[in-house]
Amino acid sequence: MSRRIIPLADVSAIPDFSGAAASPSGLVTDTLARPLRDLRISVTDRCNFRCVYCMPREVFDKDYQFLPHAALLSFEEIERLARVFVAHGVEKIRLTGGEPLLRKNIEYLIERLALLRTPDGRPLDLTLTTNGSLLARKARSLRDAGLSRVTVSLDALDDSLFRRMNDADFAVADVLNGIEAAQDAGLTPIKVNMVVKRGTNDQEIVPMARHFKGSGAILRFIEYMDVGASNGWNMSEVLPSAQVVERIDTHFPLEPREAHTAAETAQRWGYRDGGGEIGVISSVTRAFCDSCTRARLSTEGKLYLCLFAVAGHDLRGLIRGGATDEEVATAIARIWQARGDRYSQLRGSASAPSRDDDARRVEMSYIGG
Ligand code: SAM
Ligand code: SF4
Ligand code: SF4
Predict the structure, then answer these.
(1) What are the tens digits of pLDDT across the range 12-50?
(2) Which PROSITE patterns does the UniProt entry name for this protein (predicted)?
(3) Cα–Cα distances in Å, from 114 out to 49, 93, 126, 127, 228?
(4) I need a surface site. Which of 276, 292, 316, 361 has the fewest CB within 10 A?
């Protein structure tokens, strides 16, 4: 199959940032009345895994041009932007990538972000998504720096299947050790994310449920998504979450649980015997755009309003061009106030973005999952 490398440089205009745009409280909502609550920050586009559904080796090979260090937002730039986002209503920041633990001195950034407070004085929910390979070594220092908790990705317990899926020969034991270290360090509650690809790892659903049941970790099953332009996504490889729940329920009876918040992406299911809970994230079969309060800041400082966007707004250019904090705040408010993205709701409908756009979508490793 021929695969294309998509350009990373599509840029949306920065709106006029003179004058004030936000309400006096600073809080902003978009055209669908969705507030700005979550910020995902991609701190590196590099990764030590080559997960087949995210960074396939045919594309992300030794000749692939990752971003040079000078293109990355510095920790000071990230902190400055994060401060503005928090003033606009962000309460939760997730560091991601690529593999965020590959970014040198990430603990320093965490220390800075942990000092931020919401307008009414609360600390942020500060978390990080990792493939777990470096977690055993880093869990304690991450916790000491002020990280609240972690989400760890793990797609199989079967070692040879896991090695095939990460395509970099990492063992399941590395990740399980990382999860244990994170638990010991108090980075809890730990969430474990499994991307389910029908025909590849769906036979691992029940073993994964069995393994994490009663462990305190919350296992979440994610529908394989058509994100990016390089993974050769096909609907036939999506296993609807309803079937995931059915399969687990046959072995370990489940009952639905109430969502913690309206913006929660996962639907919760509890084990009837009290063995904890699982979550299912039905990004494909049950779109949750109506409650999507997430903004994404790419590795090089572009603001994306949707995982499936083809272009981002160049905040790095704005700050390196000398904009004041007020101007940055106004620009971000205006960008959010103009947001109408709801890709998953429109997927497959007549008003869906054109197929031409598909080849231009940014990669998950760049925009942050
Ligand atoms: N490297 C870290 C990790 O794997 O946890 C953080 C970045 S990764 C892009 C974030 C999450 O996106 C992971 O849980 C990964 O499994 C998920 N992901 C990547 N590509 C995906 C796809 N096509 N569909 C669904 N989830 C995907
Ligand atoms: Fe790396 Fe995470 Fe993508 Fe896997 S899912 S290739 S670990 S960024
Ligand atoms: Fe949010 Fe876009 Fe995903 Fe919808 S498709 S939930 S708007 S990121």
Answers:
(1) 888 877 777 666 668 999 999 999 999 999 999 999 999
(2) MOAA_NIFB_PQQE, RADICAL_SAM
(3) 28, 10, 7, 10, 31
(4) 276
| Minimum-distance ligand 2 atom for the alpha carbon of 50 | 6
Closest residue by Cα to atom 21, ligand 1, is 54
Domain-embedded: residue 324: yes
Residue 277 has φ and ψ, to the nearest 5°, of -145, 165
Strands (E), the chain: 11-12, 38-42, 92-96, 125-130, 149-153, 191-196, 218-223, 254-256, 267-271, 277-281, 294-297, 302-304, 312-314
Q: Is residue 81 included in any domain, yes or no?
A: yes
Number of Cβ within a 10 Å radius of residue 299? 26
Residues 86-138 have pLDDT tens digits of 999 999 999 999 999 999 999 999 999 999 999 999 999 999 999 999 999 99
Q: How confident is the model at residue 350 (pLDDT cuts 50, 70, 90)?
A: low
Please tell me the total count of domains within the chain.
1
- 198-210: b (≥16 Cβ within 10 Å) or e: bebbbebbeebbe
pLDDT tens across 252-277, in order?
Answer: 999 999 988 877 889 999 999 999 99
Closest to 288 in 3D by CA, of 222, 366, 198, 192: 222
Output the domain CATH number for residue 289.
Answer: 3.20.20.70
Residue 184 lies in a domain: yes
Helices (H), 56-196: 75-87, 106-114, 135-145, 159-166, 172-185
How close is the Cα of 130 to the center of ligand 1, in Å? Answer: 9
pTM of the model: 0.93
CA of 96, closest atom in ligand 2: 8
Domain limits at 105? Answer: 38-367
Q: Tens digit of pLDDT for each residue in 320-346?
A: 999 999 999 999 999 999 999 998 888
